[in-house]
Amino acid sequence: METFVQPKITGYRQLSEAEAALMNEGKALAEQCGAWIAKLREHSDVNRPTAHAPSRPPALDQRWVSIGATDLQRGFMAVIRGIAQPTTF
To answer: How confident is the model over 10-66, as pLDDT tens digits?
Structure first.
């Protein structure tokens, strides 16, 4: 694997190959979660009861979907920060 030496950014250090791999794995998992959240958001529009299809299940509670999305984003950011270990606030 080719090692990339990044320009110096205040508060950050050069990551090892193992750390970069862990960060990339986390970013990929975050993308999967983001796709799932998008699917949940689409589900509410598609499955909303209508006069023509009153037996459809009720729409998903988008408030909780949004809370979950925010918490997932916060969690992934925290884990990525745990890998990167920045020295600044």
So the answer is: 999 999 999 999 999 999 999 999 999 999 998 866 555 566 666 666 789 999 999
Buried b (16+ CB within 10 A) or exposed e, 2-25: eeeeeeeeeeeeebeeeebebbee
pTM: 0.75
Extents of the domains making up the chain: 26-43+59-89
φ, ψ for residue 55, nearest 5 deg: -85, 0
For residue 63, which of 45, 46, 87, 41 has the smallest C-alpha distance?
Answer: 41
